[in-house]
Amino acid sequence: MNLPTLGRSGRVAVAVITLALSACVTPRPQSREMAGMLPVLSVERFLQAVNARDFEAMRELFGTHSGPINGERREIEIRMAAIAGILRHEDYKIVEDQREPGREYPTTLVTVSLTKGGRNIPDVPLLVVQTDNGGWLVEQVDMEKITKL
Description:
By secondary structure, the chain is α+β, with helices and mostly antiparallel strands. The chain is built from five helices and six strands, in the order H-H-H-E-E-H-E-E-E-E-H.
């Protein structure tokens, strides 16, 4: 059986189709170690967005298993500004991350130590939940841990 050979235009068409199809694939973590790191990376990105007062980035990293919070842009921006005002820090350190038991969706408790106003605020908990599409979002931050000092 003789298979047809592709000319230059045929090879280009195959390459374009292959590239287009590969762009449609949702990447998945390659290992359990990588999947375990993703909640911590989301917390780090969230804390960086806090200090940059990047309210849109904060919104994209804050939500529930259904996805980032949504609603009126102005209201969300005001909420994110309030959170940023409390969480703004000079430095942070990830202390611990562990799977949170008994939750309906995969959730990780990430504990951070913040340096704020020259003071160390230890053990600030952030709950990070896995979204329906496999991403991780900050779902809850214990603001009282920071404001009660």
